[in-house]
């Protein structure tokens, strides 16, 4: 019995054992004992996770995959969560315990997985996984680059991001049309911001919605005082600002509103 890859779920099953092992080995295994694999499919990555001194859990929305895993991975027992990762409450399954996230992520929901991780960062110290290469690069990119954007800034505000390696389409069934990239996020020691986080998210998103314009123009909708808009930072375009500068910009906007 094997599982048929379903297009509507964005499934591309990894068939290369060496790459599966490399992804499993990208976990540092420090500061947590639980790991949650998203979208295990037929368990090519799962079997390497099960060899580690971690408690492996998997979450899978595809009922055919769930049946396959139940039949072939008896040592997973009751740690197969047959739900949608984007909709679950982690505390329901892990209480307050820390849990690392790993997976060969379906391309169509990969950025939502990152946003869900950021929302739950107090519980997710580490995150390792495979994305479409372009998305992986965007998450890891630094300021000054054309692909640096919302995802880069918001992720790097809370995690140290490392692009690990590129994976060709040939190692998947069915092969995707593009290369994939594996990245690792390790939560920063201080993962809360010294500014209002909601405002920080809003500033970053608003700035990049018109990324070719200077901040003076792209942040017009935020009704900033003329005095603040004279600050030299407003002459820059969003891609020129480091994460630290976005934090400092948010702080200035916060004080301006008082």
TrEMBL record:
Compartment(s) of residence: Cytoplasm
Listed PANTHER family: DIMETHYLADENOSINE TRANSFERASE, DIMETHYLADENOSINE TRANSFERASE-RELATED
Family: Belongs to the class I-like SAM-binding methyltransferase superfamily. rRNA adenine N(6)-methyltransferase family. RsmA subfamily.
The protein's name in its UniProt record: Ribosomal RNA small subunit methyltransferase A
Chain sites annotated for binding S-adenosyl-L-methionine: 12, 14, 39, 60, 84, 104
Any one GO cellular component localisation term in the record: cytosol
InterPro entries named in the record: KsgA/Erm (IPR001737), rRNA_Ade_diMease-like_C (IPR023165), rRNA_Ade_methylase_Trfase_N (IPR020598), rRNA_adenine_dimethylase (IPR011530), SAM-dependent_MTases_sf (IPR029063)
Catalytic activity: adenosine(1518)/adenosine(1519) in 16S rRNA + 4 S-adenosyl-L-methionine = N(6)-dimethyladenosine(1518)/N(6)-dimethyladenosine(1519) in 16S rRNA + 4 S-adenosyl-L-homocysteine + 4 H(+)
Function comment: Specifically dimethylates two adjacent adenosines (A1518 and A1519) in the loop of a conserved hairpin near the 3'-end of 16S rRNA in the 30S particle. May play a critical role in biogenesis of 30S subunits.
Molecular-function GO terms, alphabetical: 16S rRNA (adenine(1518)-N(6)/adenine(1519)-N(6))-dimethyltransferase activity; RNA binding
Residue intervals of the Ribosomal RNA adenine methylase transferase N-terminal domain: 19-189
Keywords: Cytoplasm, Methyltransferase, RNA-binding, rRNA processing, S-adenosyl-L-methionine, Transferase
Class of the enzyme per the UniProt entry, highest EC level: transferase
Annotated EC: 2.1.1.182
Membrane-spanning segments: none
Gene3D superfamilies in alphabetical order: Ribosomal RNA adenine dimethylase-like, domain 2, Vaccinia Virus protein VP39
